[in-house]
Structure formats: C-alpha cells, structure tokens
Amino acid sequence: MAFKLSANTRTVKGEKVRTKTVLPAVVYGMGATAASVTLNYDEFAKLFAEAGEASLIDLLLGDKAEGKVLVQDVQYDPVSDRMIHVDLRRIDMNKEMTATVELRFVGEAPVIKEQGGTLMRNLESVEVKCLPKDLVSHIDVDLTVLKTFDDVVKIKNLIVPAGITITNPHAEDLIAKATAALTEEEIKAMEESAKPADLTKIEVAGKKKEEEGEEGAEGAPKPEAGAGKEEKKEEKE
User: Fold this and answer.
1) How many domains does the chain have?
2) What is this structure's pTM?
C-alpha cells in the first residue's frame, strides 16, 4: 500500500506553531540538512495508524517530492497523550536499512480453545535489516502451532519475507506460548500469600521492647553525687 504525507516548511520552534491541527516535525537523514516542517495533525494521525513505523511514506514538502521517509519517532504529551512532535527519517532506496517491524498474531491456539488457559505474548515487534523495497509493515505469528502447553513460538519459527533479516532479538527468544489455567488450589494459595501481615503482632512486639527499655533505665545505678566533679578536678591537676 502506498502512503503519502504532505508537509510545510517552518522557521520557528515547534511549540510556537503547535495547535490542535498543526503538528511540528523534523525531516533528516541521508547526509542532507535537517528540515523543520509542520504536518496536519489529523492527516498524520490517520496515516500513522495505518502505516506505523515500518512503512515507506512518500513525502511532499509543499509541491516538491522529497522522496521516501519512515516515521522514526513520535513524542506524546504525558498528560493529554496527544502527539506533540514527529521525527521523519529520509531513506536511501539503494542502501540497506534497519527498522522496527510489528508482530501480528494470527489464528487461535488449539490448546487454549480446547482446554482453556492464557496466551503469553513476550514480544510485540522485532528489529530487521533489509533494502527499503523489501520492507514490510508487519510479520505474522501463527498461533495455530500451539497445540499443547509445551509448544512455543520463537523468533526462529517465524516465516520471514524474502530479503529481510531479523537482527534483534535472538533466534531462540520466545515470542508466544500457551499456559494452563490456574486450579482452584493454586488460586487459593495465591490469595493466601497476598494477605496483609498481622499488624497487631508487630505493635505488641514493639510495645514489649519499649517497656523493657524503660525498666532497664529505671533499674540502672545512678552515678554518685560529686563523682563528675572529682573527675574534672583530677583532669585539671
């Protein structure tokens, strides 16, 4: 699928142009000068939802074609969770590149369908190396191979499109597996271990130590009157 994105040049800082409809961004890479631009917020949000970070995008700066770019980074406001800045990376179509590709889980695990349980997903994406023309937006993870609770899907089990090499994580790293549902006994044991400590015992123990300390202080011998003065006198002499 082809993606296109329009941008306009900006000459001021991002926070000065940022509005509900205007999103500041920067375009860089391929040894060229970084360009500060603005994007239409809604247009980019819709495109990013479909393209993600692993789809090539045809960038138009005004009326001029700027070639292919990838969404390298998106920054969000911690309070509103709205996008506040975007990094776009220029791509040389003749050179190998690295990108983060999403894992898409397809099918249903037979063991969960038949016996119940939970699907554990350890990874959501992988890092790949390839020529830009070979880049894909996602790699499928086939869950239908999970026929027992001993079956697993690892990186090495993925069917990777031609021209793409997964560089991270390692081939033996786990992607997904099915785990059996907890028994009533296991659930009860977990609930028991999660019960709060008995604070009354801690309070009673604390009071006992306090009382022992007070008794010790009361029973301790008092220094004889004048003893301190005699010591000082000896020191002076």
Assistant:
1) 2
2) 0.69
Q: Are residues 66 and 126 in the same domain?
A: no
Residues 39 and 114 in one domain: no
In a domain, residue 223? The reply is no
Domain that holds residue 134: 99-186
Q: What percent of the chain has pLDDT over 70?
A: 81
Per-residue pLDDT of 135-194, as tens digits, reads: 999 999 999 999 999 999 999 999 999 999 999 999 999 999 999 987 777 778 878 887
Give the chain's length. Answer: 237
pLDDT tens-digit readout, 62-78 = 889 999 999 999 999 99
Do 105 and 181 share a structural domain? Answer: yes
Q: What's the chain's average pLDDT?
A: 86
Residue 123 to residue 102: CA distance in whole angstroms: 9
Query: CA-to-CA distance for 165 and 136, rounded, in angstroms?
Result: 12
CB contact at 8 A, 122 and 175:
yes
Looking at the fold, whether 103 and 80 belong to one and the same domain comes out as no
User: Residues of 50-89 as b/e, b for ≥16 C-beta within 10 angstroms?
Assistant: ebbbbbbbebebeeeebbbbbbbebeeeeeeeebbbbbbb
Would you state the structure tokens that stand for residue 168, as one six-digit string?
């991270």
H or E, element range at 98: strand 97-106
Q: Which two tokens stand for residue 205?
A: 């123990």
Can you give the CATH number for the domain in which 138 is found?
2.170.120.20
